[in-house]
């Protein structure tokens, strides 16, 4: 019995080994045959490429290449690819690149969109048009692609047609790219591309675009993209976009769902209409969710510094949301002249109109005015508004202060209103309260750097009321300057006398100190004389 079992097992092992060798030989022969067929197909790839381009229906027009080489492994390298519409207008150009295909589909001549596994475009110019639902199409480039980024048109030229004409035109529009629901599963790689985007009333030109996009039309799109500088509707240093677009059930008329991280770096505020000469860089870092045709972005806005007329903000940080072309800013905080700012606002990306309101607290007046003699903590309600033109920015509000001093004069508080438009800054209802007087004025303007002051009302707490007119200001200003200079010199002389008198019991006051003090007294008398012509109510 053992003999029969051993014999049977020996024969089984011999048959098993022969079977394995046969399968291996079959696979080897099959691989060789496939390699030979793939090699033959790759040598005729130019003919196959032209046939595929003639059969495909997604891209309207013609796609040609200057030269084409292929490997048996399915990589086609090309130079000077050009896609033109039937009217001969260029829709896409790429000096070089690669197309990766499934060689089994090529050998079996199963020419479908699914045969393409990858597309790589180097130094290409790509122009994308997004409709109201963000559906993608390719269109001819505008002249702006060859302009410096700061000269790119902020928005497309508006058509000279009625709204109804425009809607009818869109309904009849022939698309250059039509997906038609075909299954696509490929990786798109962009190297040093230039990208122009038209989207509703917005227009962007982006340089140095690097991207890797994996598209599976039955599942999702995975995006990893970074751009260099850009211009158009906004000017900035670059953008990054990373994340996923869910495409499940998209053929059942369900909108793709977004889950993306979107960062915009170094945006120039003037390019958005925030003032005519404000170029401090702004950065937005957001998470984008929601439907593909109506994305919702939430995140943070940051600016290391923001300089506007009469105000300098540092470390600006706030919350931002975006939807339907509207940016909402909330909880914006910043440092300003050793004080704090809290603000919020709304910005329309299409019209460039905006409103911003805020409260600044405990600003150091000596820093803001660059006058060390004037020290009071100032707070203010701020309002910024623009209808969309950089030069029409309007700033207004009111301010109030705590106690402080101007030179040796104690100040209890200051209140007033201000208004700034262009290079014209005005103050009204300004009141300065001291321990002995109240000074008020309704007219104080700074036009192009020139100060214009109306009458000053000076009311002493003893009941006397004075009005100081313009003709007295110049003389008083000159005397006050001399007084300040005399006080400064007297202080230096006094310090010098104190230093030299250390260790001496009896001190003789130097003659130059006496003279400085005498000068100050004489200058104070001159100020009194200047008030003799003042009218008294």
Automatic annotation (TrEMBL):
Compositionally skewed regions (Basic and acidic residues) per UniProt: 147-166
Alphabetically ordered keywords of this record: Membrane, Transmembrane, Transmembrane helix
TM regions (residue ranges): 20-41
Region (Disordered): 141-166
Protein known as: Membrane biogenesis protein AsmA
Source species of the chain: Veillonella dispar ATCC 17748
């Amino acid at each position: 019995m053992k003999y029969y079992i051993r014999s049977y097992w020996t024969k089984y092992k011999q048959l098993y080994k022969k079977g394995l060798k046969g399968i291996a030989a079959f696979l080897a022969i099959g691989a060789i045959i496939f390699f030979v067929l793939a090699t033959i197909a790759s040598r005729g790839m130019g003919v196959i490429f032209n046939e595929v381009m003639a059969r495909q229906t997604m891209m309207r027009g013609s796609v040609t290449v200057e030269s084409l080489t292929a490997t048996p492994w399915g990589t086609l390298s090309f130079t000077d690819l050009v896609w033109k519409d039937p009217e001969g207008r260029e829709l896409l150009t790429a000096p070089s690149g690669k197309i990766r295909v499934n060689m089994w589909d090529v050998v079996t001549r199963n020419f479908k969109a699914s045969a393409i596994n990858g597309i790589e475009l180097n130094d290409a110019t790509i122009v994308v048009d997004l409709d109201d639902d963000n559906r993608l199409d390719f269109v001819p480039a505008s002249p702006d692609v060859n302009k410096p980024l700061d000269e790119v048109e902020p928005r497309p030229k508006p058509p000279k047609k009625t709204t109804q004409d425009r809607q009818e035109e869109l309904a009849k529009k022939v698309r250059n790219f039509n997906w038609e629901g075909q299954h696509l599963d490929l990786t798109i790689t962009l190297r040093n591309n230039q990208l122009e985007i038209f989207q509703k009333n917005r227009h962007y030109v982006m340089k140095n675009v690097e991207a890797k996009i994996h598209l599976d039309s039955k599942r999702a799109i995975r995006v990893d993209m970074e751009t260099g500088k850009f211009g158009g509707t906004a000017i900035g240093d670059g953008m990054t976009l990373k994340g996923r677009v869910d495409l499940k059930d998209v053929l059942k008329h369900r909108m793709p769902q977004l889950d993306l991280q979107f960062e915009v770096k170094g945006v120039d505020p003037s390019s958005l209409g925030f003032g005519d000469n404000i170029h401090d860089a702004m950065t937005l870092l957001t998470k984008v969710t929601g439907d593909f045709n109506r994305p919702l972005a939430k995140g943070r806005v940051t600016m290391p510094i923001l300089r506007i007329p009469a105000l300098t903000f540092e470390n600006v940080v706030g919350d931002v949301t975006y939807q339907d072309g509207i940016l909402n800013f909330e909880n914006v905080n910043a440092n300003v002249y050793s004080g704090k700012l809290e603000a919020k606002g709304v910005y329309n990306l299409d019209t460039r109109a905006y409103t911003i309101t805020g409260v600044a607290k405990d600003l150091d007046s000596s820093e803001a005015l660059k006058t060390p003699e004037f020290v009071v903590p100032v707070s203010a309600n701020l309002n910024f508004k623009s209808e969309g033109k950089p030069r029409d920015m309007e700033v207004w509000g009111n301010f109030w202060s705590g106690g402080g001093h101007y030179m040796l004069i104690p100040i209890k508080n200051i209140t007033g209103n201000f208004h700034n438009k262009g290079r014209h800054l005005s103050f009204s209802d300004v009141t300065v309260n001291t321990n002995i007087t109240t000074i008020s004025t309704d007219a104080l303007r700074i036009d192009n750097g020139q100060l214009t002051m109306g009458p000053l009302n000076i009311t002493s707490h003893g009941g006397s009321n004075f009005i100081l007119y313009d003709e007295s200001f110049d003389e008083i200003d000159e005397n006050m300057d001399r007084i300040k200079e005399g006080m400064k010199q007297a202080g230096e002389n006094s310090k010098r006398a104190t230093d030299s008198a250390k260790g001496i019991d009896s001190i003789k006051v130097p003659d130059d100190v006496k003279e400085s003090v005498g000068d100050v007294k004489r200058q104070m008398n001159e100020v009194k004389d200047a008030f003799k012509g003042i009218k008294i109510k």
